[in-house]
Amino acid sequence: MEFELQLTKRFHIPNCNKLEVALQHGAYSSLQKLFSMKPEEVVEEVKKSNLKGRGGAAFPTGVKWGFIPKDTEKPIYLCVNADESEPGTFTDRYIMEYDPHLLIEGIICSAYAIKSHTAYIYIRGEYVKQYKILNEALKEARQAGYIGKNILGSGYDLEVWIHRGAGAYICGEETGLIESIEGKKGQPRIKPPFPAVEGLFGCPTIVNNVKTVSHVPWIVEHGGEAFAKIGTKESTGTNIFGVSGHVNQPGYWELPFGMHVLEFLEKYAKGVKGGKLKALIPGGSSTPVLTAKECEDLYLSYESMREHGTFLGTGGMIVMNEHTDMVKALKTLTRFYSEESCGQCTPCREGTSWLDRLLNRILAGEATMKELDLLIEIADNMEGRTICALAAACAMPVRSFVTKFRADFEKYIKPVSIPVHKVAEKILKHEPIA
Ligand SMILES: Cc1cc2nc3c(=O)[nH]c(=O)nc-3n(C[C@H](O)[C@H](O)[C@H](O)COP(=O)(O)O)c2cc1C
Ligand code: SF4
């Protein structure tokens, strides 16, 4: 398969985080063309490219940019989401580590397109190394005139600030992120208004993922149509897919969308380790899990995932072999979500911890069969009733784990001892015994 790397093309070059080296290998080459275009033309190219946000929701980037009110007199902000806290997701960090100038170039292109003069990079607190590298790269870019006033004599000004998070998953949610930059608790806001209309400091704001923004220089240089030709109809361009869990070679690879998942696992991750494939979480832990059978006709594309009732999400896959205890695996996830719920919405605050406590009971062998159904009932009552998608991010895995791997859960259910006359009563009434 012939294709051009867009995001990882300079990863193999030693010291490419240094401006001098990055420049020798084509960094900032899109800027000359960028400044010859009108901002609206850049937005148009990104629309044509059908680039979808790589942060998880896959919202079309150009369409989102188009939501900024045309006649606004307020400043417009670009916030780059480098929080990358979704379990199983670990690719943004390598752009910041190995090619920070690609991200900075992407920020210049994206900010120019949306007529923003101030951009923030919100980086997760744990990424200390990446923060230091990015900070140095930004200093070098500023000194060389790529950031600041009148960039390369274009008349365009842009300042870029790095804001470090303090280790909360919810600050990756775009409005939680905005609150956090404003110096408040990272608690998501009710939408609408959407950030594109009223975001940071009450002004129009675009929040985009690191990878999304880093794709833009390629689109500026080659055009939206060229980007749209790569991958599949709905999933255009390339993506960095990450694999962790039971594989022989965990890692990340940049590929055009569309490859068969099993071929990808075999060719790049060198196959499933320790037994046969049992389950796959396709795009960060918030996406519904798939069985090995479902993976048989599954492709790395938004549309194929949707057809299988799941999402490509962040593209961070978690592979589980046949010896995986799905109850323990789910318990790890519910603990995470219950700890990370910001607590504003009752269905999320209470629901995530109920689920977690129920899983404790199941694992301790104290639960009854009814409690398996209760897991699903609670999950059903969390989704669509909260301010942000964290509740759904917990509910979806729970529902898919319990329905697709029910036998794993049933193994933990203790036999119910009820008096014989009660059993007889229940049989006569056609009621379940447990
Ligand atoms: C609980 C939660 C956590 C999120 N964490 C991240 C994150 O770490 N990085 C990210 O890019 N998007 C994250 N998102 C998605 C963002 O809200 C937002 O959709 C994204 O940054 C938009 O960028 P994109 O359009 O480029 O994908 C999260 C969403 C939710 C609900
Ligand atoms: S859904 Fe959960 S994390 Fe999101 S705002 Fe509500 S309580 Fe907070």
Question: Low-confidence parts, pLDDT < 50 over ≥5 residues?
Answer: none
Task: Provide the β-strand percentage band.
Answer: 5-15%
Task: Supply Rg.
Answer: 24 Å
Reported CATH architecture of the largest domain = 3-Layer(aba) Sandwich
Please, what is the CATH homologous superfamily of the largest domain?
NADH-ubiquinone oxidoreductase 51kDa subunit
Biggest β-sheet, characterized?
Answer: 5 strands, mixed
Q: What would CATH call the class of the largest domain?
A: Alpha Beta
**CATH overall fold name of the largest domain:** Rossmann fold
Assign an overall shape: globular
Taken together, the total number of domains comes to 3
**End-to-end distance, in Å?**
55 Å
Topology:
Layout (H helix, E strand, L loop, with lengths): L18 H6 L6 H6 L2 H11 L11 H6 L10 E6 L9 H7 L1 H14 L4 E6 L4 H16 L15 E6 L9 H8 L23 E5 H13 L1 H5 L9 E8 L5 E6 L4 H7 L9 E5 L8 E2 L10 H6 L8 E6 L4 H15 L5 H18 L5 H14 L7 H15 L1 H5 L9 H9 L6
Parallel strand pairs: 1-2, 1-4, 2-3, 5-9
Antiparallel strand pairs: 5-6, 7-8, 7-9
Bound molecules: flavin mononucleotide (FMN) and iron/sulfur cluster.
The site of iron/sulfur cluster has 14 residues, from helix 14 and helix 16.
Written account of the structure:
- The protein has 434 residues and is of the alpha/beta class.
- It has three domains: 19-228, NADH-ubiquinone oxidoreductase 51kDa subunit (Rossmann fold), CATH 3.40.50; 241-321, Ubiquitin-like (UB roll); 326-410, Up-down Bundle (de novo design (two linked rop proteins)).
- 42% of the residues lie in helices and 12% in strands.
- It has helices at residues 19-24, 31-36, 39-49, 61-66, 92-98, 100-113, 128-143, 174-181, 210-222, 224-228, 261-267, 302-307, 326-340, 346-363, 369-382, 390-404, 406-410, 420-428; strands spanning 77-82, 118-123, 159-164, 205-209, 238-245, 251-256, 277-281, 290-291, 316-321.
- The strands form two sheets. The chain has a five-stranded mixed β-sheet, with no helix packed on it. The chain has a four-stranded parallel β-sheet with strand order 3-2-1-4, sandwiched between helices.
- A hairpin with a 5-residue loop joins strand 5 and strand 6 (251-256).
- The longest helix is centred in the last third of the chain and has 18 residues, at 346-363.
- Bound molecules: flavin mononucleotide and iron/sulfur cluster (SF4).
- Flavin mononucleotide binds at residues 53-57, 59, 81, 83-86, 169-170, 172-174, 207-209, 212, 388-390, 393.
